[in-house]
Structures are given as C-alpha cells and as structure tokens.
Write a structure and sequence with these properties.
single chain, alpha/beta, 7-stranded parallel β-sheet, two-stranded parallel ribbon, 11 helices, 13 strands, 16% strand, globular
C-alpha cells in the first residue's frame, strides 16, 4: 500500500479524507498538534475503519520535529496538506498569527518533501483566492483578485510557493480550491467540531438549533443578491475528501497536465445564507433563532464554482446535495449532544 502523509489529520476535512484514502487502498500517517482539533476526530476515524491511525503530535512550524517524521517514514509517496488556521474573521483580527502559522508550516513541509524525495503533493487551497470575482461561476482560469482576508492571502501565497517549487523540484502538485465544506460522515462518527465559538455557517446553525448558542447572526442582509445574504457554494465534506484521493491517484498515474495542476471543488450551485438556514429548518424540523446583522469584514459577496475540470479530469462525482449536507450535520450535532450527556452521567456516578 502506498503511504500518504496527511497534515491536519485530526481536523474536519483531514479525518474524512483519511477514511476515504484507507477505504481506497492507501496507507496513512497523520501530523496534527491538536491546536485546532481534538483526539475525538481521530477516535471517530478509528471506529469507522476498525484500525489505529498513527498521528504525530507535531507543530509544523518546528522544522526539526517535522523532519523527524519524514526520517521515520521514508516510504511516504505523497503529502496532503490541510494543517492551517482557517477562520476568515479571526485572520482579519490576527493577521500575523495567520501568516506565521500557515506559511511557515508549508515552507517546512516543502523542505522535507525536497530532502526526502516525496514525489506528490496535494495542497488544500480555497475559493478565497478569487476574492470578489468579476463573474460567477469561477473557473480555474478566473483572475486571482486581491484577497479579502489574511487567511485568503495565505492561500494565495501557498499556491505561489507550490507553483514555483514544483517548477524546479522533482515533485508534482495539485492545488484543490474548495468552496464551503459542510456536513458530516454518514456514520455520524466524525464531523465538524469547532473549538470555541464556531466561525463557519453550518456549525453555527446546528449549535444554535441544539441550544449551545442562544442566537446566531446572519452577517449582511443588504448584499446585491436574491435575498440580500451572501451566496456560497456548499459542498459535502465526503465529496471533498474523495476528491483528494482522486487527486493523488491522478498524480501517481501521471495524468497531470503540468507540474502543478489546479482544480475547483464545488457543486456549481450558489446557495444564500438564508436559503441554507431554510433548508436546515426543513430537514431538522427546528425553527432557528437568528438575527440579521451587519456585514462582516473579509466576506465576499457571492461565489460558486465551475467544477468541469475536476469532473472531467479527476473523474469526480458529487454524491450529496444541500439537503444531505444539512441532514448529516444535524445528526452529527445530535450525536455530540448524546455523547456529552453520557459523559455527564458517568461523571455523576463517579
């Protein structure tokens, strides 16, 4: 089995991708310092797969510790790099923290990829690289506009690093620009588990519905869209995960057109924030307590993908629609509540 290193393996997309990789015949090791994740995610992965996953609790900003992982695993044939801070609003507030974490970690990884001759690299990029696009849906050839947030800027710079690095080194790369991953694994054993206040829409919706948050806010209701709220392309996390497996197979089978290919990962349909809330209410039967608030710095008005390249070149097929996204996210939230209740009962008995 070909061994793949997944960074950020305990995180939201990392956990789902590890499941997909192993179900498709890959061997996987993980690096995650759990600064933005918990061991809960990897525990769920192991329950789904029925096997242990080796995770190195390493901060990728520490070069020596990162290099030690590669020294111990010289048979790694590919890296999937998820590990990064990813909250748009937080990045606006703490730009230096984002630049340091997201860029230094990538530089250290690429140094190791070069030294240990790892031939394949898949980079977790984002539709934020397009900024406020001139036209939608965006294609891979759409202009890279000024980033609306430091988070988006780190993704743009990460792409430049990979493009320049791949030109001169013996490594083939893929940049996967995904849109808005949501939902959870159908088993409800893994899903999005933000630490502290959720920064993304769907966990904010589910945590409000279950009572963890008294009220959520819709940031901006006067945008030039069909209902005044932002438009996004929500894509199920399992569909995103499988695209990473396909991307690795694409590189391993030498189907890449350039040393650094680019693919959009989205459904191709734009959904407004208010439409997403309405779908959640229909699926869950819960009336959501929300309030229309002001615009938030760093948010683009509207963006969704043209995904023809991923569909035609990678053979990617989207399995889940917005209804399944909301349904799996809600079932995941209900499971968390159930597990928390069991833990409270055990604590009371002790």
């Amino acid at each position: 089995m070909k061994k793949i290193l997944v960074t950020g393996g305990s995180g939201y997309i990392g956990t789902h991708t590890i499941v997909d990789l192993i179900e498709n015949g890959f061997d996987v090791i993980s690096i995650d310092d759990n600064s933005r994740s918990t061991v809960y995610g990897m525990n769920g992965v192991e329950k789904i797969l029925g096997k242990k996953i080796k995770n190195y609790k390493v901060d990728l900003k520490n070069f020596d510790e990162t290099r030690a992982v590669f020294q111990e695993n010289t048979d790694v044939v590919g890296v999937i790099h998820f590990a990064a801070y990813k909250a748009v609003g937080e990045s606006v507030q703490f730009p230096l923290m984002y630049f340091e974490n997201n860029l230094f970690s990538l530089i250290n990884l690429l140094k190791c990829v070069k030294e240990f001759n790892v031939p394949h690299f898949v980079f977790s990029s984002s539709c934020t690289v397009y900024g406020n696009p001139d036209a939608i849906p965006v294609t891979e050839l759409s202009a890279i506009k000024k980033a609306e947030s430091p988070y988006g800027a780190t993704k743009q710079m990460g792409e430049v690093m990979l493009q320049d690095f791949s030109k001169v080194e013996n490594v083939s790369s893929i940049l996967l620009r995904y849109f808005n991953p949501v939902g959870a694994h159908p088993s409800s054993l893994i899903g999005e588990l933000p630490l502290g206040k959720p920064m993304n829409l769907v966990p904010a919706i589910t945590q409000t519905a279950i009572g963890k948050i008294p009220k959520m806010f819709v940031w901006g209701h006067d945008y030039p869209t069909r209902d005044g709220s932002c438009i996004r392309d929500y894509i199920h996390v399992c569909d995103i995960a499988h695209a990473h497996t396909l991307a690795l197979e694409y590189l391993i089978n030498k189907k890449n057109k350039t040393k650094c290919d680019v693919f959009n990962l989205g459904t191709g349909d734009g959904v407004t924030v208010l439409e997403a809330i309405k779908m959640f209410e229909e699926v869950s039967g819960v009336k959501l307590n929300y309030e229309l608030g002001p615009r938030r710095d760093g948010d683009v008005i509207a963006i969704y993908a043209n995904n023809d390249a991923a569909v035609n070149e990678l053979g990617w097929k989207i399995k889940y629609g917005i209804k399944e996204m909301m349904d799996t996210a809600w079932k995941w939230e209900l499971r968390i509540k159930q597990e928390e209740a069991l833990m409270t009962q055990k604590a009371d008995l002790n």
